[in-house]
Amino acid sequence: MDLQSWRNELLSSILLWALVLGVITAVPSVIMALRDDMVSVAIIDTLAILWAAAIWRLKSLSFVARSWNLLLIIYLIGLFFFFKIGPVSQIYLMAVPVLGALLLGLRPAVYALVLNAVTLLTLGYIFNVNLQFDRFQDQPFVRWVIITLNFTFISAVITVSCGVLLRRLEASLKSQLQISLSLQKEQASLKKANEELRLISAAVENLNDIVMITDSDLNNGGPHIVFVNKAFERTTGYSRNETVGLNPRMLQGDASETDDLGRIREAIASQKSVRAEFINYTKSGDEFWLEADIQPIIDRDGHCTHYVAVERDITDRKRAESDIYRLAFFDVLTGLPNRRLLRDRLSILLATAQRTGIFSAVLFIDLDHFKTINDARGHAIGDALLVEVANRLTSILREVDTVARIGGDEFVVLIDHLDLNMENASRIALTVAEKIRNALAMPFEIEDQIYSSACSIGVTLLPKATQTVDDLLRESDTAMYRAKSAGRNQIAFFEGAMQAEVEQRLTLERDLSRALDLCELRMVMQAQVDQDGTPVGAELLMRWTKTNGEFVSPAVFIPLAEESGLILKLGDWVLHQACEIVNQLRTHGWMFPVSVNVSPKQFRQQDFVEKVRDILAAHHLSGEEFVFEVTEGLFINDMQETIARMNALAALGIRFSIDDFGTGYSSLFYLKRLPLYELKIDKSFVQDIPGDANDTAIVRLILSMAKHLGLRVVAEGVETPEQAAYLTENACDCMQGFLFSRPASFQDWLVKQGSAP
C-alpha cells in the first residue's frame, strides 16, 4: 500500500468516526444548547454532521476536495466556537493544520497554520474575543500576539511532527514498496529458476541419452562420479548408489580402445571438451558402444569444478555399420573378401609391385563340375561345399595373401611379394597353385557324404607395363578357361595368345548370332546304311560358312553356341530345317527317319515338348519321322523330369538315340528306364577295330548289350572296309561314316543317291 492509499483510508476512517462520535456528542450538546437558548450551537452542530455525512457519502469527489471540505468544516466550527465559547475553539483550529498535514501534506498544513494565526490575531484583536487570558488587558494587540504565537507554536510543533512523520512514513513505505517489489521479483525469479531447475532435472533424469557428471579431482583415483541419470542405470545395469564416488573407468574392459581413452584423459587434464566413441561394459559384462561429448564446467573464477558427459548408446549403429561394411566388402556365404574389396586390395598390390619391382601373382580358381553337385544335391550342399573350399584355401595360404570369392564357384587368390626375378616368381606361383589344386582335390565330407571337387586355376603375374586391375582379372580368368579347355583340374599361366583367343571367341560369338540372318548356316545330311549299304536313315548336321568363304568347324561353334545360349535359337531353326528335308525326302520316295541332335540345354526348356508339337504340326509331319540324338550328360541331372519329357515326346512318335555312347556317364540304370530306340557307338571305339583288342571288346559288348535290351545300334566313323566287315559280322544294325557317304547338302545327296528304288 502507498501513502496516498493510506491517506484515503485515513480520510474515510476520520469521516466515519466523526459522524459516529459527532452524532453521539451532538445529541446532548444540542439539548443543552436549546435549554440554554443557544439555538445557533444546535444548528451549527447539526449542519456540521450533515456536511460530514455528505462528504462521507460522495466518494465520487476527489480526495483533495473531500479533504479540504473536512478541514473547512473543522475550521468553521472552530471559528464559530471562537466567537461563541472562546478557548474551546482553539482545539478545532489546531486540528485543521494537524489533519492537513496528515491528509494533504506539510505544505497545506503550513497554509492552515498561517490561516489560524491570521484568524486568531485579526479576529481576536478586532472583535476582542474573550479567551480567558487576563494579562495585558491594557495592551490588547500584544495580548493577541502572545496568544497567537503560543497557539501557533504548539500547532506548528504538532503539525510539523505529523508532517515529518508522514514524510518518513512515506519514504519508509516507498522503501518497503521497493523492497517488496524487489522481493516479489526475486521470488518470481526464484520460482522461475526453481521451475526451470525442476524441468532441467526432470529432462536430464528422463533423457534417453546417458548423462554423467564427475568432479574435477584428477588425483586420488579421480575423477569421481557425482551424478548419473536413469538412462545410465538402464544401459549399464549399475544403480546410482553403486556408481557415485567411483571412477568412470569401472565401465572399461579388454575391448576398450586405449587410444580413444588416452585422448579423453588428455582433454580432461587440459580442461578441454572432447568427443569420442569407445566400448564400455555393462554390469553383466556385455559390450556396448558409446558416443560421448565431454565438457568441462567452469565457475566464475575460471576454475573447472566438474565434467559433464552426455553419452548415447550407438551399439546398433556400430552393428549396422559393421553389417554394411561386411555386405559391401565381404561375401555373405563364406566371409571372404568380395569383388569390391578384391579390386581395392589388387590395386594396392599392383601399385606396390610397380613401385618395388617385386613380382606377385593372381590366381583365378574355378571349381570343376560344381554345377553338377549343386543341381544334384541342392544349393544347401553346394553352399556348404563353397564354405569348406573357402576354409581350406584360407588355411593353406599366408595371412598376407588374400582369398576372395567373386561369385558362384569362382575364387581369386592374391599371392604377395614372390620374388624380384620373374622366373623365380613364376616357379613359386606354380608351387602355390599346385598346393591349392591338390588341397581342393582332396574329398570333402558334408553331412556324412563324401564329395570331390577338383579345380582349374589360371595364373598371371604382376607387374607388367600399363597393367591395370581389370587386366589382371581378365588375364587370370582367361588362363583359367585355358586350364578348363585343357581337360580341367589343370593349372595354366596367362600368355598373350590367350587374350587373342578370347577376343577371337567374342568375335566368333557375335558373328554366330548374326549367321542365321545372313543365311550362313546350312544343314547337311550323312546317310546311315544297313549291312547291304542301303540308306536306312540319315543324320542332319549343321555347317557354317561365312559370307567371306571362311569355314567354321562345328567342333568350334557348337560348344560356343551351348555356352552363349545361342543353341536355343539354332535348335529351333534346325527342327524347321529337318521338317523341310523330311518332306523333300518323302517327295522323292525316301521313307527312312532323320536323326537330329538335341542339346541338353535345348531339351530342358520348359516348353520344349509344346514347341516340337507346334513345329511338327506346322509342317504336317508326325514324330515318327524323327530320331532325337541326345548325349549321356542329359541324364545326370533331374532324371525324373528328363524321363517325363522323353515320354511326352515319345507319345508324339519321336524316337531317341544316345549319341557317343560309352564316352560319358554310361549307366545301365537309365538304359532300362528310358524310352530309347538306338545306341550310337562313338567313332573313337570304331576307328581302331578290329586291330585294337580293347576297342573290339567294347564294341562287341555294346552290340551284345543292345541286342538283349532290344535297342538298335548305329556305328559312327566307319571309314574302312575292315571296320564295316567286322561290324556286319557282329550284327550291327546300321553304319555311318565316310566309307559310305560324306556329309552333303540335301540336293547333293539326292544327286548322288537319286530317288528311292
From TrEMBL:
A single GO molecular function term of this UniProt record: catalytic activity
Domain of life the protein comes from: Bacteria
Keyword Transmembrane helix: yes
InterPro entries in alphabetical order: Biofilm_reg_signaling (IPR052155), EAL_dom (IPR001633), EAL_sf (IPR035919), GGDEF_dom (IPR000160), MASE11 (IPR048437), Nucleotide_cyclase (IPR029787), PAC (IPR001610), PAS (IPR000014)
Transmembrane recorded as keyword: yes
Domain PAC span(s) in chain numbering: 272-326
Entry's transmembrane regions: 12-32, 38-56, 63-83, 111-129, 141-166
Residues of the EAL domain: 505-757
Listed name of the protein: EAL domain-containing protein
Species for this entry: Undibacterium nitidum
